[in-house]
């Protein structure tokens, strides 16, 4: 699979000439996407009534890490990243369940930025903005990110790893 560089150069040239329909800089659009995406996730948070699935274990490990020290987040089966973040965010929130859910909401909201960068890196700014908007407003993603599960944190980590890997390959 080899890309034709002249086609890519023409596409880049064409994309730099086009403006977005809002006539705002991409940074402002991304901030608007992040704020509205977080507002959507906080709206969906109202419809989470119980802790279920693996949330119980991650929250239990995170609360134990907060109360007894970070040595308690280590487990032979459950990964320590999310419980460590829950233990850290428990200092900010009085409610442990809310602390765990806010970690996922923040990770899912922050996912907008590397997805935009990845779309911009691979194609152009418009594709990056559309991809970021998709991450911000896709209802199943926004609703699932209100669970205290590892998926949003690892989606953010994996997307950042792919982005950094592609940037390293370009250098």
Q: Which features does this protein show?
A:
171 residues; mainly alpha; 71% helix
Give a structural overview.
The longest helix has 20 residues. This protein has 171 residues and is an all-alpha fold. Helix 2 runs antiparallel to helix 5, helix 2 packs parallel to helix 7 and helix 6 runs antiparallel to helix 7. The model has no long low-confidence stretch (mean pLDDT 88). It is built from nine helices and no strands.
Concise structural overview:
By secondary structure, the protein is mainly α. It is built from nine helices and no strands.
Q: How many strands?
A: 0
Give the radius of gyration. Answer: 19 Å
- Shape label: globular
Q: Which class of secondary structure composition applies to the elements?
A: mainly alpha
Our measurement of the CA-to-CA distance between the termini, rounded to an integer number of angstroms, reads 20 Å
Strand content: under 5%
Average pLDDT: 88
Low-confidence stretches: none
Largest sheet, strands/sense/barrel:
none
Q: Oligomeric state of the chains?
A: single chain
> Which percent range fits the helix content?
over 70%
Order of helices and strands: HHHHHHHHH
Number of helices: 9
């Amino acid at each position: 699979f080899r890309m034709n560089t002249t086609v890519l150069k023409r596409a880049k040239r064409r994309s730099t000439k086009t403006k977005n329909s809002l006539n705002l800089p991409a940074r402002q659009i991304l901030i608007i996407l992040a704020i509205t995406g977080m507002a959507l996730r906080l709206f969906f948070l109202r419809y989470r009534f119980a802790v279920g699935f693996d949330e119980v274990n991650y929250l239990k490990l995170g609360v134990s890490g907060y109360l007894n020290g970070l040595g308690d987040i280590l487990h032979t089966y459950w990964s320590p990243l999310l419980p460590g973040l829950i233990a850290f965010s428990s200092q900010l929130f009085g409610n442990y369940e809310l602390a765990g859910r806010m970690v996922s909401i923040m990770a899912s909201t922050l996912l907008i930025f590397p997805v935009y960068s990845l779309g911009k890196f691979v194609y152009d700014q418009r594709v990056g903005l559309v991809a970021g908007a998709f991450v911000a407003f896709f209802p199943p993603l926004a609703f699932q990110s209100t669970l205290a599960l590892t998926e949003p944190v690892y989606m953010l980590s994996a997307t950042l790893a792919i982005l950094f890997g592609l940037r390293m390959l370009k250098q």
